[in-house]
Amino acid sequence: MELKNLHLYWKASCYIATGMIYLWDNVLLKEPLKPEHIKRRLLGHWGASPGISFIYAHTNRIIEKYDLDCLFVVGPGHGAPGYIAPLYLDQTLVKYYPHFTLDEEGLKKLFRSFSFPAGLGSHCTPELPGSIQEGGELGYVLSHSYGAVLDNPKLLAVAVVGDGEAETGPLATSWHVNKFINPVRDGVVLPVLLLNGYKINNPTILARIDEEELINLFKGYGYEPKLVIAEEPIQAHESMAQAMDWAVERILDIKSHTEPFRPIYPMIILKTPKGWTAPRKVNDRYIEGYWRAHQVPFSDARNNPEHLRILEEWLRSYEPEKLFDQNGRPIDEILRAVPKKKIGESPYANGGMLRVPLKLPKIEAFCIDPANKAENTRPLGMFLREVMRLNPNNFRLFGPDETHSNRLYDVFEFGKAWVAKTLVEDEDEGHLSPFGRTIEMLSEHTVEGLLEGYILTGRHGILNTYEGFAPIISSMVNQFGKWLDISSDIPWRMPVSSLNLLLTSVVWRQDHNGFTHQDPGFINSVVDKWPNVVRVYFPPDANTLLFIVWQCLQSTNRINIIVVDKQKHPQYLNIEEAKEHAMKGLGVWKFASNFPDEEPDVVIASCGDIPTKEAVKAVKILIEHCPDLRIRFVNVVNLFCLTPNQEHPDGLTDKDFDSYFTVDKPVIFNFHGYPWLIHRLTYRRKNHNNLHVRGYRENRKIGIDLTHLTNFLKGRGGITTPMQLAILNQIDRFSIAIDVVQRVPKLSNKAGSFVDEMKNMQIKALEYAYNHGVDMPELDE
Fold this sequence. Notes:
Layout: H1 2-22, H2 49-66, E1 69-74, H3 80-89, H4 93-96, H5 104-113, H6 141-149, E2 155-162, H7 169-174, E3 188-195, H8 211-220, E4 223-229, H9 233-255, E5 265-271, E6 281-282, E7 285-286, H10 305-316, H11 320-323, H12 332-335, E8 374-375, H13 378-390, E9 395-399, E10 416-417, E11 432-433, E12 438-440, H14 444-456, E13 460-466, H15 474-487, E14 499-504, E15 534-537, H16 542-552, E16 559-563, E17 568-569, H17 575-584, E18 586-588, E19 602-607, H18 609-625, E20 631-636, H19 654-661, E21 667-671, H20 675-682, E22 691-694, H21 722-728, H22 733-743, H23 751-772
Parallel strand pairs: 1-2, 2-3, 3-5, 4-5, 9-12, 9-13, 10-11, 13-14, 14-16, 15-16, 19-20, 19-21, 21-22
Antiparallel strand pairs: 6-7, 8-17, 18-20
Helix pairs in contact: 1-2, 1-3, 1-5, 1-9, 2-3, 2-9, 6-14, 13-16, 16-17, 18-22, 22-23
């Protein structure tokens, strides 16, 4: 009886999924199908939907049978029909959207809403309860699922992995996260590989390898796979029920252990035809079991009588008259297949409901004396270590094998998460532990996905990585930003902790990596996105960094990007000054200004720790050579302060912007990234024509002939010293000083000799770097 009800539930799901794609009216087929019953524009994806509904139905069964806390994560990109249909039958949709009632009228509204303006999309979007990822970009279902189960020991995440999705790089690496999962502290992910054979227009790789090779592949990943071949539905239900029971009982056995170990986790490979239960052929072209089933199997049923007839036969094959009563309500047998703990009502999928604010230590305990040079990120590592101490179960640090390099190694006091084999040598520094709080894996996609899954289910974290490799996750972060942006408009979705990204080992200090690691472009990919979501910070020193991170860890529904270098740099502000500076987002530095309370002749501005260092040094040179020059020094911490307040919540009003940058004086702006980004943010400002930005450039022409020094590429592809790189990009102190003298009219009589002297200094600096491999010591004082 149980499997019979489950089969009826699945048939109803398939009918609803098909109806959402095709039907505008006559939703229960109470009369013959007519052209006017078909939607004018057919959108949606059928191919993976029956498989998703099938797995969903069997997940319902194990939830009820074993009383599980379960999260259902849909990987196939356009699988929404196969997810929405069971949500409707579970009566979860009507809880959040009262117009989707469990009757004929509610069903009609559901059909008309799907893939329709202001309706439900063809992905598992934030509007759908129970969902934690959209799937519009493939590859993240496993990393999201594993992130969700970290520190959630009672949670089972059923991750539906599409076989097309399995070909992506992010998905391929994320199979390995099982080596970080501690069964004592963490929950379990049950991957279900939906092997339906085709992508949009091609066969999938995993569907075309021998069964033995397929099984051995996943055994090599550390799983115990069980293959379920589903063709005839009744037999498929029996096989799938046995496989799910086997998997859950294996998981329960794993969870019964009280000491951490690395288990071999179960997984299921479900082999179904693509577009299962659709017509096998239409006009001698394959549909079921072929790639044509991926989207709308045939799209001209409204105008083609023969295709209309085939569509009606297809829809009637589900026997809707036996699935729904006269009022359109699903029959009792179907409703009995719904568990008490409904997938769509899982609190883990609405993580803000579970979120507990972090206990944060006072940052004053970690601040440093600005009189001394320091590694900007080292005090932050000490701070994060204490965050871990105070929040042992809901805060983690993630990174692609760069946490030590980024000077955050104090967090290793709480270990690196690891349940795979260990060696004696591993204890030398930063011990590996099943209870470690830092997860490192050399896949930026995977650690980003783990962090997203972790915060979406109610916890907190930070990802640290090299700035040059952040573009690898650019598209992924953009997808997550879209999720947050939409979620903020959905009243029942509670705010989740912000996605915090720390980008260090920055473009200006690639001392031993060179040109390959020089890329500040990640920030360009996000500055035009969702003003309510994105923040970009450039702390100039360690104390400002501490306060910004302290703020970011308390924020919600944001993407906080923090760019700061890890090397030793000058320090400028004590902790109180740093707080004030960060809270304003920018400020006038009187200690770096000449006649700071007077109308300036020039504004020297900086954004980023290394450009700030060079800009401050330029002021010193200018004051020495031009003591009557009135200089105002402005440092920018929050990049979005530069935008008008109508465009971003953190933007300055025009009056405030003018008070900092004047309305008619030259502004020399030394920026961390590509210079045109500053122009994009400020083009509407009154003084924009006088704004001259220096930053990272790919085309480095400095007007100095260096061929006598080297036959190489003058720093483009090889190793560069910090000053050499600064000069090649003209963000150095000498270039800034030259720019000021040439742009301030009252200094025109000094320009010739001054420019000549500054270029001589650049030549000396470059010669020293090329001859000695390091910068002149006096340039770094």
